[in-house]
Specification:
CATH architecture of chain A: 2-Layer Sandwich
Helix content of chain B: 10-25%
CATH superfamily of the largest domain in chain B: Probable tRNA modification gtpase trme, domain 1
CATH class of chain A: Alpha Beta
Distance between the termini of chain A: 32 Å
CATH architecture of the largest domain in chain B: 2-Layer Sandwich
Distance between the termini of chain B: 33 Å
Structural class of chain A: alpha+beta
Structural class of chain B: alpha+beta
Oligomer: heterodimer
CATH topology of the largest domain in chain B: Gyrase A, domain 2
Number of helices of chain B: 4
Number of helices of chain A: 2
Strand content of chain A: 35-45%
Radius of gyration of chain B: 18 Å
Bound molecules: zinc ion
Number of strands of chain B: 12
Radius of gyration of chain A: 14 Å
Largest sheet of chain B: 7 strands, mixed
Helix content of chain A: 10-25%
CATH superfamily of chain A: Folate-binding superfamily
Largest interface: A-B, 14 and 10 residues
Order of helices and strands of chain B: EEEHEEEHEEHEEEHE
Largest sheet of chain A: 4 strands, antiparallel
Shape of chain A: globular
Strand order of the largest sheet of chain A: 3-4-5-6
Strand order of the largest sheet of chain B: 1-12-2-8-11-10-9
């Protein structure tokens, strides 16, 4: 599997570190319920198919990336920087 | 109690005790030439939020170079600026004359860290330089994929490396690469590089510093 880093270009997957699902949003700690925090920390879907996930270009430019990947084929649909993604989410 | 000892600290080059001038490996015309790049002034620059433009202007004024926004290296007669990740660069000078002053002038515009003693750099050339690097480098270094001026952050033999290609050797026409590793990795990196280059015959020029 190769991931095309928006900064560095296509690189072998061994240059990257996987974090996991990019969708969960951390609840406001003091305001939320214990159950909501539990779900945020522990509950993950395990989809066979399209998955938005966080990868870190640890042996390259050290950028956090949001990769949309098919977990059955490893086909990668999009790669965005997490920074651009966060700015997009905020907008 | 013992008398207080007088300790004299002597500077040591980053390749001291690792690299020695001479030839090794297959005899004959060397396929790879390796030169220690020692005593450089090296600093990492990280632009403050929204200050990329001001930093770029200051660098233009001080050293006549613009900030590369893609993975590449730009050089003047004396200085180089190498892309080192998003909003990050390495400023490199051939020695440390005036380097502290330059960093002080840039300090208001960026997070700056002097890496002169923290990195170890080599210059590699020769007709077999790509065959040598291909044994550990996952990047395509063919001229069509990695032209003069390209820079990259990657790993070789599980060690993080920063490498770039400078102008071809004017005498031989061979490609010239420079590789920089964390200084603590210099010994391990040399162990990989020397083993990889040996079959092609290798000529080493150490600086003799420290
Ligand atoms: Zn990258």
């Amino acid at each position: 599997m190769r991931i095309t880093c928006p900064h560095c270009g296509a690189r072998d997957v061994q240059e990257f570190t996987y974090l996991g699902d990019a969708n969960p949003q951390r609840p406001e700690g003091m305001a939320t319920t214990e159950a909501a925090m539990h779900d945020y920390v522990y509950q993950r879907d395990n989809p066979a198919g399209r998955h938005r996930e966080l990868w870190y270009h640890s042996a390259g430019c050290h950028a956090w990336l949001v990769v949309t990947r098919d977990t059955r084929t490893h086909a990668i649909e999009t790669v965005e920087t997490a920074r651009a993604r966060a700015q997009g989410d905020a907008a | 109690m013992a008398d207080a000892a007088t300790i004299a600290w002597t500077p040591r080059g980053s390749w001291a005790g690792i690299l020695a001038s001479g030839e090794f490996g297959t005899a004959g015309q060397p396929g790879v030439t390796i030169e220690a790049r020692d005593g450089l002034g090296i600093a990492s620059l990280i632009a403050g939020d929204g200050r990329d433009e001001a930093l770029a202007q200051a660098l233009q004024g001080h050293i006549g170079l613009g900030l590369p926004l893609t993975p590449c290296i730009v050089s003047s007669a004396r200085h180089s600026l190498v892309w080192a990740g998003p909003d990050q660069w390495h400023l490199i000078a051939p020695d440390r004359n005036g380097f502290d002053e330059l960093l002080r002038d840039l300090a208001p515009l960026a997070a700056i860290s002097d890496q002169s003693d923290g990195r170890a750099a080599l210059r590699l050339s020769g007709p077999k330089v790509r065959d040598t690097l291909a044994k550990g480098c996952m990047l395509d270094l063919h001229p069509s994929a990695f032209p003069v001026g390209t820079a990259a952050l990657t790993s070789i033999a599980y060690m993080g490396v920063h490498l770039w290609r400078i102008a071809d050797d004017p005498a031989s026409g061979d490609a010239v690469f420079e590789i920089m590793v964390a200084r603590s990795m210099a010994g391990s990196f040399w162990s990989w590089l020397s083993a990889s280059a040996a079959e092609f015959g290798c000529k080493v020029t150490a600086t003799g510093r420290g």
